[in-house]
Every structure is written in structure tokens, then in C-alpha cells.
Amino acid sequence: MPNSVLDLIGNTPLVRSKVLNTNPKVQVFFKLEGHNPGGSVKDRPALNMIKTGLERGAYTKDTKLIEATSGNTGIGLAMVAGIYGLDIELVMPENATVERIQTMRAYGAKVTLTPADIGIEGARDYAEAKVKQEGFTMIDQFGNPDNWKAHYNTTGPEIWRDTQQQLTHFVSSMGTTGTITGTSKYLKEQNKGINIIGVQPQEGSRIPGIRKWSPAYVPRIYDDSHVDDIFYVNETEAKSMARRLAKEEGIFSGMSSGGAATVALRLANQLKEGVIVSIVCDRGDRYLSSGLFG
């Protein structure tokens, strides 16, 4: 029996596509990270970054923590920080969905909204200024190795185990890049032939949770040697697939998961055989006010 809600992070379900994948020679599986208690894949690094930081003395109960986030990491951090009795300020663009903002506040975090036109990069700049000027400590999901190590220690081993070591392709949207970096590092150690596919938005497309960073803001944890190929999706494809996942597979998720699924299914149509796993990084209920589902 779990001692804490934190014990429920990880070991998320892997379910096979029964409708959207039409190639009988290829198996496509969706890993349902929305089943984590905070509702997304970001619960994993949130726990690892805070727990490990406390263990090595980087944080104490008196530390003023701050982090820039587009949503899911902030929710995970708010949940974990609250359980550990830590104060945290989360900085995000003002055009974030109200569900994400209210969820962070429900967990006890202070939420600061920055102008929408400067995006997540502007939120990062704001948080860094608070570190330099006001003595805050940044968790730094974009540069903290405990981010990708969470996936090396949990996500990768779970996928390898649950595909009975038959995995051929892993597909993940790229945001902070922690998921793809850590999972790839583990999977490549098991079988160098596994193809790691990153998903990014096409030029001009805005897909929450997926981004192509400008050079100055590329996450320091990212190592392109762990990614074999990058596929691009547009906003229309990602939205359409998120809706189809819900309606046809019963998988309720956000737009970034729709983007990854678009690539996974595109890949399935190109292969003669294979076992593909695509990350469904969160739940769709935090996007209801965005109009994603009509």
C-alpha cells in the first residue's frame, strides 16, 4: 500500500492502438502519463528534482524556490513541493489555460503570470532575474540533470519491460527535452538499434508542450546524440489527432500528445514491421477552456 501520493508516480499504463493504427504488421502503443497523480509525465522529474535536491542539501524548508513553466512541470512541482512543505513560485505566460493556473494554486504554489507575447522564454528571463536580484533558487528543469535522470530511471525501464524488450521506435514530443533525453539514454543502452524520434512544431505552429527553441534557450540537458530523427507536425494535425484519440481510442489528452501520436501513426504506415511507443504526456481536462475539444 502506498505511503504517499508520491508513491503513485510512474508505472503508467501502456495501451495498444486498436483503431487509429491500420497497419497490422506494426504495433503502436500509447503510454498514458496522465495516470500520474498530478496528471502528466512531468510528475516524474518534479519528484526527482525536488527529492534529490533536498537530499544533497541544495534546498531546505527555508529556500525560496522558483521555476518558469508552461504548465505541466509547474503542476508537478506544486504538488511535490506542497507535500514536502516547501514554498515555490511558478512563472508562466498569461495565456496558459485557467485549469493549469488554478491547479498550481490549488496545490499551494504562488503563480506569477508574464506577458503572453514574450512566451515561456520571457517567463524564464523573469525567473532568472528573481534568482539574481532577490535570492531565489531556481529548480531549473532546462538544465537540471535530475530532470532527464527521472526518465532514465523510470520511464525507459517501464517501456522496455512492458514491450517485452521488443521495442523498435520511441516517439516523444520535445519541450524541456527531459523525457526524450533520459528515456533514450536508457533504451539505447538496452538496444542501440531502437529509433528515437523527436516531435517538434512546424514553423509558425503553436502547440502547447512542444517547441523549437531559439538557440539561446535550447535546454542545457538536451543532447542531440540521443535523438535519431525529428519529425514536424502542424497545429491542425495535433488538434485533430488529440480529438481522434479521445473519440476513437478513449484516450483523453492534450495537443502535444496529439502531435506525438500523429508522428507515431505516420511512422507506422511507413514500416513493414515494428513496435512503436508514443508518449501521451498528460490529460485533456486541463485544456477544456482552450477550445481544443470544441
TrEMBL record:
Residues 6-282 form the Tryptophan synthase beta chain-like PALP domain. GO terms for biological process: cysteine biosynthetic process from serine. PANTHER family: CYSTATHIONINE BETA-SYNTHASE (PTHR10314). Gene3D superfamilies: 3.40.50.1100. Its cofactor is pyridoxal 5'-phosphate. It comes from Croceitalea dokdonensis DOKDO 023. The modification N6-(pyridoxal phosphate)lysine is found at K42. Pyridoxal 5'-phosphate binds at N72, G175, T176, T177, G178, T179, S256. The keyword Transferase applies. The lineage of its organism: Bacteria, Pseudomonadati, Bacteroidota, Flavobacteriia, Flavobacteriales. One of its GO terms (molecular function) is cysteine synthase activity. The keyword Transferase applies. Its EC number is 2.5.1.47. It comes from the Bacteria. SUPFAM superfamilies: Tryptophan synthase beta subunit-like PLP-dependent enzymes. Keywords: Amino-acid biosynthesis, Cysteine biosynthesis, Pyridoxal phosphate, Transferase. InterPro entries: Cys_synth, Cys_Synth/Cystath_Beta-Synth, CysM, P-phosphate_BS, TrpB-like_PALP, TrpB-like_PALP_sf. This is Cysteine synthase. It catalyses: O-acetyl-L-serine + hydrogen sulfide = L-cysteine + acetate. Belongs to the cysteine synthase/cystathionine beta-synthase family. CDD domains: CBS_like. Pathway: Amino-acid biosynthesis; L-cysteine biosynthesis; L-cysteine from L-serine: step 2/2.
